[in-house]
Amino acid sequence: MSSPIPHQQTIAAVATAVAPGQGGIAVVRLSGPAAEVVGRSVVSVPGQQLWVSHRVLYGHVMDESGQERIDEVLVLLMKGPRSFTGEDVVEIHCHGGLMAVQRVLERVLAQPLVRRALPGEFSQRAVLNGRLDLTQAEAISELVAARSRRAAQLAMTGVDGGIQRRITSLRERLLDQLSELEARVDFEEDLPPLDGAELLVELQCVRRELEQLVEDAKRGDVLRQGLQVALVGRPNVGKSSLLNRLSRRERAIVTDLPGTTRDVLESEIVLEGVPITLVDTAGIRATQDALEQLGIDRSHQALAAADVVLLVFDLSQGWTSNDAELLAQIPDDLPRLLVGNKADLQPASMAASLMAASLSNEVDAKAPDVMLSALTGQGEEALIEAVLKTCGASEAQGLVVALNQRQQDLAATAAIALARTQEAAEQKLPWDFWTIDLRQAISSLGEITGEEITEAVLDRIFSRFCIGK
Ligand SMILES: Nc1nc2c(ncn2[C@@H]2O[C@H](COP(=O)(O)OP(=O)(O)OP(=O)(O)O)[C@@H](O)[C@H]2O)c(=O)[nH]1
Ligand SMILES: [Mg+2]
């Protein structure tokens, strides 16, 4: 662990979520050389309690006159380096909600030597002080943002140092090869000849591992970012009913009147660990109603923004020319499923005759990918499975490590640089050419782990974190 880097300024922020009426307690966190002084000056602790590190004290945050109690609190002093940031940290555990915690924070910020923390600044200090690896800090942020159990599990691998270990070990293998190469560049005659083929095999082996990591990570993105699934279709086919069924609540209004839904409506659900935003839309049809038309315009926008489109149609009416028109409006590269709804109106054995009926409608018959009933729930499981499969989410289940976007880009850059060494070998270029690419690969991996990273890049990474992290 490196020795703490002295930061002149002491920073403070609310470290817990802030919402009116929510949260029994909230935490105001301070970090920096003045943390203890500030803690002592705003919190008055009765009796014989001592400001000892890693002990909980009880007291009150007092206003500047020392007369009025702002809140009743518990205070925790953690002297550096045994703290999250590696600096002196004081946590003031006050009451939650909006007002108490805001007043406590204001009181803290009114002290000399304290300023409001920037987004991610606590984590950034923790990394600079060697308390956390960069990948761990990023993983903590992802853990906090996780919207499903699986996403949280995956983030925990990063928190435990899983990403750091994987990348560090690949980087070390490259460093070994680089030192072999460099020795040859400098002292070619004094050393036994280098087996270029063997070296190349090792480099390409690392490259394949990196490519695999990037591929896995793309599958992990689904767990991290979730999916936007749009329900589109003609009026009255049962889009809102399906949304309600999948959300397990009466989120959308359902009636037998076509054109019921007038606005885009979202519902957050988790399917097999994948966070999904279901988007119900207004049924698309030609209409004179200005309000309905606005809703229909929004349906088109939702369709364009979706990761997967469920084109819902009514099995009892078969596949109609209007359904075909809608299908034609879905961009070619957008994964879609044709969902035949109202299967309950149709005895199972009728499925074939249904298709025949659609054929006779002079419309190109489309077999539904899934048949279900939003009313009875039959076929729901098959729908869920099909949705996850369509967007590759079912493959994300077995993942252990998943790089975030920044890490993916750098791993891909490293893999490309290693691919160039293959070309250098094929063209029988001198060792110098190999070392250029090898160094580039090593440096990209070092940027993932934080070993080779500039302050400016660090600032950019942490600025995406929330305040208080
Ligand atoms: N029998 C049967 N009726 C259904 C099913 N799904 C929906 N319905 C009925 O179909 C009618 C329309 O359902 P909605 O869910 O409002 O349809 P929608 O596609 O959202 O319609 P708009 O919002 O107007 O575009 C209602 O009377 C529902 O009860 C189903 O699976 N079986
Ligand atoms: Mg509706």
How would you explain this protein's 3D organization?
- This protein is α/β, with parallel strands linked by helices and 469 residues long.
- It folds into three domains: 10-132, Gyrase A, domain 2, CATH 3.30.1360; 155-222 and 401-449, Up-down Bundle (Four Helix Bundle (Hemerythrin (Met), subunit A)); 227-306 and 308-390, P-loop containing nucleotide triphosphate hydrolases (Rossmann fold), CATH 3.40.50.300.
- The protein contains 15 helices and 13 strands.
- Helix 4 packs antiparallel against helix 5 and helix 7 (196-225) packs antiparallel against helix 13 (405-426).
- The longest helix is centred in the middle third of the chain and has 30 residues, at 196-225.
- The model has no long low-confidence stretch (mean pLDDT 89).
- Residues 233, 235-241, 254-256, 258-261, 282-283, 341-342, 344-345, 373-375 line the site of guanosine-5'-triphosphate.
- The site of magnesium ion has 6 residues, from helix 8.
